[in-house]
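dumping this here before i forget
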Amino acid sequence: MPAWRCCSRPAGSGNDGTLEVGLIESEEELFADGIRLAPGAQHLRGAVRSGLVALDENGDVVPALADRWNVTDDGRIFVFRLRDGNWPDGSELSAESARLALNNAIRSLRGTSLGLDLLPIAEIRAMAGRVIEIRTTSAVPHLLQILAQPELALRRDELETGVMLLQREDGRNLLHMRPPQERGLPEEEDWQEHVREVELFPMTSQAAIEAFDDGEVQVVLGGSVGDFPLVDTGPLSRGTVRLDPAIGLFGLQVLRARGMLESDEVREAVAMAIDREALMERFNIGGWVPTTRVVAPELPGDPGIIPERWEDQPIEELRQTARTRVSRWVAAQEGEVTPETTSLAVLIGTSPGHDMLFRELADQLATIGITLVHAEDRNEADLVLGSIARPAMPVRAGSSTSSTVRSTRACAMTMSIFSSPRRSTRKTLPGAPICWPKPRPN
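structure:
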């Protein structure tokens, strides 16, 4: 859910200057070489490795190892024409070698949520020359966007295929652009005059923002709703805050049905008591969409037949109903009723933005007789605040009509708060605070 804070390079800088970029990640997370990537690691993976396709800065699918493609009218056959060129080891970028690499990438994602998105792929065929064909068992509207994810970059003999090379030495982390011919482009004289090397600095959110304000880095990438209050968004701030939308939901997720949360009525009472508009006002950012649905509204394949709940009921009336349900549950309990009986422990970060959310939620739930407390870890938590696109229960709310149907049971175990803006920039990279991307490995 990172927010982007960025600015143009200082006036007077030449093209041969280094672009210093701060990423709000630990060094271990940023340079991880696995399939479960932090947002900063996704940025880096996207730079040093290429898949069949990629996403540009507007979130549109653009060529990568494949220079063009076609999709049949029924959305079940995707045909890719690979660009002319070779793998980094000098061997030919053939249809068969790309098929093997893609199968390996898909196989590595088994057991992850991104792997679930790939389940409809029935077969990958190597056709004549540099053409490969992907066949699916059903239409997959977002398959091109899924194939553009950094986790689906293709490799051969562990060599990188991206447009940039990472050099780590003498304590520096430098990205250099590959020559045009290695990127499937015609040779070009003086091409280095038009590119800059990039130096990466893994940082905490506080350190990254201070470094930006002091002019030590020119761009900061990363962060979350918890970090947003640290950012100066006033007219005299040195840079511009960019919040990129991503499809998804944000809300409370039930980790285990115990105590009060064993009751369907009480779980629904919690959802009824949340004033979603009031939560949004604290951050004063446009684009957040309050929702009571467990599937983000207006996704492709959404028939539009599932309305928002309680749309015409004022929050005071909803809370009165919720209080009655909580009181009825308490009265039905045997033995002594203690403060712990009506307490719920929520797992949430402790950064400034998370503290704002926690305090507001705690005040709202107190109106119906529930005390919200911090959980030290996941084992102690009743609820977790975050993306409900990663449900704790074995139910998945995805982007297809069938997923909308499958999510019926999840409604009882989650309380949606916000959905993302309607247009997705990227499934797995920066999104507006309070709007996480849809499922991804974690």
